[in-house]
Backbone:
């Protein structure tokens, strides 16, 4: 087993974040006999925190994967081996590498080695095509691509074009990519300090500590993993990795959750839909204390089924994006889960600033609908080799592209994406709002809405839906829409299908494919 | 085919693809439910005038006359009563 690098050394040279409260160093924590949770104050980098947790409880399970467990000691040992191999590559200090984000404890160890070596990591989705991956590797200035093959071992493929020195923000630790539904993915560099502040918030909010089990459903290259994997490990918890090959298999998911009994679950609505369908009202998972809904709007019918499945959990609707990480949280109980009313965005996380911007881009107060603009302690300051976020009053602000309505009580509710706005006969319509109305119908299982160009009206809305039972007619759905939408927003066409709607890699409905189908 | 059946048939074929004509209730509000918008209203008026030989230039057009199958039916009946064309179109 490789000796552990001192956690303090990992932290060396990283400026203390102004927004992070001063906490004891891991070494101090060890001397004071604190628990691993206490040993990871906000602002501590993941590597330092994981090493601290490992020294406190080396035999505790850090990662559960395909029925087996990897202890903190084993994780740190694998990470140490990987670190030695990385050092042997002789790369210039601070030059990033790319890591294939295959979901395994070995990949976690490899990323941890990079953190410990202060070597920035670009996480590549395993689903990326060679061309897009090559483009990202080059733009990020990566020396090459590593793919974990065993405990501490990895395949190394040097970048074909030697990259120049990358223009990374100081203290860059991780590089994530935006989902890239339009065009080439953008690279979002996150600093160790930002990550430390985020894992600190996550631990405080979801009571992550020694022995807390957290389910990891999202791929490792998704921002959700910052909580599921890194916040958990940094606080001595256990990560339960969902096997990506079976991430959409309801029976597998229910079995995994029933046997590993996580305390915290964070996932996109699709995961909960699968779990609810597998449980079929007959199973409960009482050990779950926190259920985090994120990624997209959770339909009211699905929301209503959650208290029965998770009788011991507080539900949280969390809003965030890759660029800023989590920004708002709304926590609620069974009554609100069942009432069907739109969930508010909730309150800004500590240190998060936000405003709504009108059509002119200027912030406004009071009731109205505008684009949400946020500044968070966890965010990037811009894209790598791309636009930096505008600075105002000493903060970098990110335009989320999300339309939000503020009512007269100051409550914020998400309406949809600004780029999912269409004009129908001159009236601005949010396609997502139409979708949410359809999904709120008790007999609708799935729904997606696309706009097709129309010579007369500008655009024509087509709704594609899958009813729960065969009794539903398109006229009934139309009547429902008319009760909940302005006239221009009522779809022109309702396409009722018995087969599931096509979904993309993120589990969201593939609108591009639907549009293609409807125009074919 | 009765006049109301014919109206229903036209409406579902043109504006409600996939809905059988007998599923469209005669009192279904075509305007509030977004079946007929301002553009298709003109189209519907044109069809009625042509099919039932209603001379539009002598009639005040009110959207309420096109609000439902029943409304369209009584509009046609009202504006063709006593005219020679009625027997011809009703077959």
Residues:
């Amino acid at each position: 087993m490789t000796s552990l690098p001192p956690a303090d050394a990992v932290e060396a040279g990283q400026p203390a974040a102004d927004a992070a409260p001063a906490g004891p160093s891991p070494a101090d924590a060890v001397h004071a006999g604190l628990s691993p949770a206490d040993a990871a104050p906000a602002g501590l980098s993941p590597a330092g925190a994981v090493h601290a947790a490992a020294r406190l409880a080396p035999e505790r399970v850090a990662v559960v994967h395909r029925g087996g467990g990897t202890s903190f000691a084993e994780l740190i040992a694998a990470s140490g081996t990987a670190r030695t191999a990385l050092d042997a590559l002789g790369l210039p200090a601070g030059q990033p590498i790319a890591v294939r984000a295959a979901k395994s404890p070995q990949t976690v160890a490899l990323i941890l080695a990079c953190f410990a070596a202060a070597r920035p990591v670009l996480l590549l989705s395993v689903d990326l095509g060679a061309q897009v991956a090559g483009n990202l590797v080059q733009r990020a200035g990566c020396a090459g691509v590593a793919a974990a093959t065993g405990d501490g071992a990895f395949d190394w493929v040097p970048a074909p074009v030697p990259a120049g020195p990358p223009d990374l923000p100081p203290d860059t630790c991780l590089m994530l990519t935006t989902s890239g539904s339009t065009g080439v993915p953008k690279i979002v560099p996150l600093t160790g300090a930002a990550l430390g502040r985020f894992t600190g918030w996550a631990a405080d909010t979801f009571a992550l500590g020694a022995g807390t089990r957290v389910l990891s459903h999202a791929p490792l290259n998704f921002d959700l993993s910052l909580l599921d994997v890194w916040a958990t490990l940094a606080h001595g918890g256990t990560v339960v990795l969902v096997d990506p090959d079976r991430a959409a298999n309801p029976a597998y998911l229910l079995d995994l959750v029933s046997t590993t009994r996580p305390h915290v679950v964070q996932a996109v609505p699709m995961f909960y839909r699968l779990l609810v369908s597998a449980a079929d009202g007959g199973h409960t998972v009482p050990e779950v204390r926190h259920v985090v809904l994120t990624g997209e709007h959770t339909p009211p019918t699905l929301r209503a089924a959650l208290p029965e499945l998770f009788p011991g959990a507080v539900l949280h609707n969390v809003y965030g994006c890759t660029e800023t990480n989590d920004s708002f949280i709304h926590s609620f109980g069974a009554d609100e889960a069942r009432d069907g009313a739109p969930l508010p965005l909730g309150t800004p996380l500590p240190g998060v600033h936000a405003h709504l911007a009108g059509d002119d881009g200027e912030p406004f107060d009071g009731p109205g609908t505008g684009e949400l603009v946020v500044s968070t302690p966890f965010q990037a300051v811009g894209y790598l080799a791309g636009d930096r976020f505008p600075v105002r009053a000493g903060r970098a602000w990110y335009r989320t592209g999300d339309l939000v309505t503020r009512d007269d009580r100051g409550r914020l509710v998400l309406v949809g994406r600004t780029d999912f706005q269409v004009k129908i006969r001159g009236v601005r319509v949010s396609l997502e709002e139409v979708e949410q109305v359809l999904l709120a119908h008790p007999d609708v299982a799935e729904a997606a809405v696309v706009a097709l160009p129309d010579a007369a009206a500008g655009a024509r809305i087509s709704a594609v839906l899958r009813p729960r039972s065969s009794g539903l007619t398109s006229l009934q759905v139309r009547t429902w829409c008319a009760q909940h939408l302005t006239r221009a927003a009522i779809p022109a066409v309702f396409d009722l299908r018995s087969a599931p709607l096509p979904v993309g890699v993120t589990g969201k409905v593939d609108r591009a494919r639907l549009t293609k189908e409807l125009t074919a | 085919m009765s006049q109301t059946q014919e109206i229903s048939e036209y409406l579902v074929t043109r504006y409600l693809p996939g809905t059988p004509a007998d599923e469209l209730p005669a009192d279904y509000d075509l305007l509030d439910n977004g079946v007929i918008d301002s553009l298709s209203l003109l189209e519907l008026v044109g069809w009625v005038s042509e099919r039932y030989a209603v001379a539009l230039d002598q009639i005040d057009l009110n959207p309420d006359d096109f609000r439902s199958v029943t409304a369209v039916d009584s509009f046609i009946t009202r504006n063709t009563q006593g005219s020679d064309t009625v027997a011809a179109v009703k077959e």
Summary: Chain B touches chain A at residues 16-19, 23-24, 28-29, 31-35, 37-39 (CB under 8 Å).
